[in-house]
Amino acid sequence: MIVDGTEAGFARDVIEASMQVPVIVDFWAPWCGPCKTLGPALESAVKAAGGKVKLVKIDIDQNPGIAQQLRIQSIPTVYAFAGGRPVDGFQGALPESQLKEFVAKLAEVADQLGGGAGGEGEGPSIEEAIEQADEAAANGDHDRAAAIYGQILEHYPNNAAVMAKLAVAYAKMGETEAAQELLDGLPDGTATKPEISGHVASAKAAIALAGKAGEAAAKIDSLKAKVAADPKDHQARFDLAEAEAATGGHEAAIDHLLDILTVNKDWNDGAARQQLLTIFEALGPTDPLVTSGRRRLSSLLFS
Question: Is 91 a catalytic residue?
């Protein structure tokens, strides 16, 4: 359950092993004070999971290549892998309660898919596993949803619907390259199927929004100041909405775009409405913000 990892064994101990059960990777160094606190607590939590989660400890002084490849900038840093991909993580020494919650969430993924050395029974069917992943996604727990979808694909690699749903989860987590890779790898002719096309559109919209995140974050403060100085500056408000959406402030973005539409429904050839629909698509039809936002939009357009 707990091993000292190396660069040479990373693919075997982490990537390949995470196809069977979630693998936690602890990046540490002997000189790191917080690592000495986190390490034993993490080991204890993993042991308590009874084999449903594995732990790989990597000394970055002895294995600098892996640390550089994963862009480890400070330690302790912890990543969780499932289905061959990182699905969660944190930096610093978490309180024991949060640490147990982190490990328990990963152990739950193993339970749902019948994995883990300590698991019993055959686990749920693919339909039940998909339902559990869908529920996690609907509740905004995209890390957990991605972990379950990813492990389902290990057993059913050509399930286009699960690929599309995993692409949505990755996009909402900011893993845009992984999301695009999944979309590009969809079996021919599946992207336009009714049961899949909505997820594809949602993933594409989320990728488009996330792609603007870096530039948008640097502009938010100045755009807020512009809007505060001139509330009728629709372009500044529109740009602020784009920036908010790109950095996760979807509710604020929706409010700003609806403010523009309240004053001028046709501003800039309907740009505010189009951007609003892009946000709705990225969030997905079950998101409460989409439900309330569509209601408000209809009220404006048809009043």
Answer: no
Sign of the Cα torsion 66, 71, 77, 79 reads negative
Q: What is 124-208's CATH number, 1.10.530.10, 1.10.3720.10, 1.25.40.10, 3.40.50.880?
A: 1.25.40.10
Q: Looking at the DSSP assignment, which residues form a beta bridge with residue 25? A: 56, 79
pLDDT in the model for residue 303: 61
Pick the catalytic residue from 14, 17, 21, 32. Answer: 32
Total residues belonging to the chain: 303
pLDDT digits (tens, 9 = 90+) for 65-104: 888 877 787 888 898 888 777 778 888 888 888 888 888 8
State if pTM tops 0.85.
Answer: no
Which one of 35, 93, 109, 164 is the catalytic residue? 35
Asked about 74 being catalytic, the answer comes back as no
- Average pLDDT estimate for 52-74: 85
